Amino acid sequence: MDASDMGDDLERVLLSEEQLQSRLDEIAAQIDTDYAGRDLLLVGVLKGAVMVMADLARRVRVPVAMDWMAVSSYGSGTKSSGVVRILKDLDTDLTGKHVIIVEDIIDSGLTLSWLLSNLRSRGPASVEIATMLRKPDAAKVEVPVRYVGFDIPNEFVVGYGLDYAERYRNLPFVGTLAPHVYGQ
Ligand code: XMP
Ligand code: MG
């Protein structure tokens, strides 16, 4: 899917495919330096992190294992509440492992803050966070994030794993939607 498949649903491109991919080159190089000589487990958060996980994991040169979690945060529509339920847990025992949580976006930070303490309670050697996007103006809790792709304005975005009503996840870029898509 590309911008030309969106008709007039696309308002604007916030981050192009080239911007996303070249930032991932930089983050992967940083991870290679930070984790040299160690085994690493990448934990992707479904479904939004599928794209960043696939592209980041292919760029990293240290050996990695990959596992997935699905969580749902109770709350209305596009707002996160911080009350999190595990829909799919990891298959991997985290004891003694070096873990990076791979996320698409940090908005309020509530979901990730919960996830971080949940994973830390399982006895890993270390847990860090990598996120493609972060909205600093939406932060409700401070989450220590080691790897950030881009800080973006506090607007609802789609593409590169992020959806509106399950659509647009397969856009290779990140953009905003025209108001008529939301029924306005
Ligand atoms: P919190 O607020 O807990 O929420 O950091 C993180 C989760 O909320 C979703 N989210 C978005 N999804 N466009 C989306 O498609 C957005 O702009 C957006 N902001 C937050 C996302 O699932 C993320 O993992
Ligand atoms: Mg997500």
Automatic annotation (TrEMBL):
<comment type="pathway">
    <text>Purine metabolism; IMP biosynthesis via salvage pathway; IMP from hypoxanthine: step 1/1.</text>
</comment>
<dbReference type="GO" id="GO:0005829">
    <property type="term" value="C:cytosol"/>
</dbReference>
<keyword id="KW-0808">Transferase</keyword>
<keyword id="KW-0479">Metal-binding</keyword>
<dbReference type="GO" id="GO:0006178">
    <property type="term" value="P:guanine salvage"/>
</dbReference>
<dbReference type="GO" id="GO:0052657">
    <property type="term" value="F:guanine phosphoribosyltransferase activity"/>
</dbReference>
<dbReference type="InterPro" id="IPR029057">
    <property type="entry name" value="PRTase-like"/>
</dbReference>
<dbReference type="InterPro" id="IPR000836">
    <property type="entry name" value="PRTase_dom"/>
</dbReference>
<keyword id="KW-0963">Cytoplasm</keyword>
<dbReference type="GO" id="GO:0032263">
    <property type="term" value="P:GMP salvage"/>
</dbReference>
<dbReference type="InterPro" id="IPR050408">
    <property type="entry name" value="HGPRT"/>
</dbReference>
<dbReference type="GO" id="GO:0004422">
    <property type="term" value="F:hypoxanthine phosphoribosyltransferase activity"/>
</dbReference>
<keyword id="KW-0460">Magnesium</keyword>
<keyword id="KW-0660">Purine salvage</keyword>
<comment type="pathway">
    <text>Purine metabolism; GMP biosynthesis via salvage pathway; GMP from guanine: step 1/1.</text>
</comment>
<dbReference type="GO" id="GO:0000287">
    <property type="term" value="F:magnesium ion binding"/>
</dbReference>
<feature type="domain" description="Phosphoribosyltransferase">
    <location>
        <begin position="19"/>
        <end position="164"/>
    </location>
</feature>
<dbReference type="GO" id="GO:0046100">
    <property type="term" value="P:hypoxanthine metabolic process"/>
</dbReference>
<keyword id="KW-0328">Glycosyltransferase</keyword>
<dbReference type="Pfam" id="PF00156">
    <property type="entry name" value="Pribosyltran"/>
</dbReference>
<protein>
    <recommendedName>
        <fullName>Hypoxanthine phosphoribosyltransferase</fullName>
        <ecNumber>2.4.2.8</ecNumber>
    </recommendedName>
</protein>
<comment type="similarity">
    <text>Belongs to the purine/pyrimidine phosphoribosyltransferase family.</text>
</comment>
<dbReference type="GO" id="GO:0006166">
    <property type="term" value="P:purine ribonucleoside salvage"/>
</dbReference>
<dbReference type="GO" id="GO:0000166">
    <property type="term" value="F:nucleotide binding"/>
</dbReference>
<keyword id="KW-0547">Nucleotide-binding</keyword>
<dbReference type="InterPro" id="IPR005904">
    <property type="entry name" value="Hxn_phspho_trans"/>
</dbReference>
<dbReference type="GO" id="GO:0032264">
    <property type="term" value="P:IMP salvage"/>
</dbReference>
